[in-house]
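Q: Could you fold this chain for me?
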Amino acid sequence: MFGVMIVMLSGILIGYILRNIRAIPALVSKINIYIIFLLLFVMGLSVGSNPQVIQGLGTLGLLGIAISVVSIAGSVFLSWIVYRHLFKKEDDQQS
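A: Sure. Below is the predicted structure, expressed as structure tokens.
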């Protein structure tokens, strides 16, 4: 855990030092995308090499779909409520 904190603080320090260079945000964004793809690939290798996960993929897949559908439905519903309460037009409020 200490190593993770050192790496994070080093990144913050370097980012602070290089904050005035305009090309840095675009470069960091591109690097982040590739690192995320690499992380997803390595996680896929890990999952694919685990026989227990592969055997339970059907059950896990159905559960994953159910959780995704409920999460999306809840997000849409709560977004609709927030939109109605915060972004109503004045005409709608007077009616």
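A (continued): The first helix runs from residue 2 to 17.
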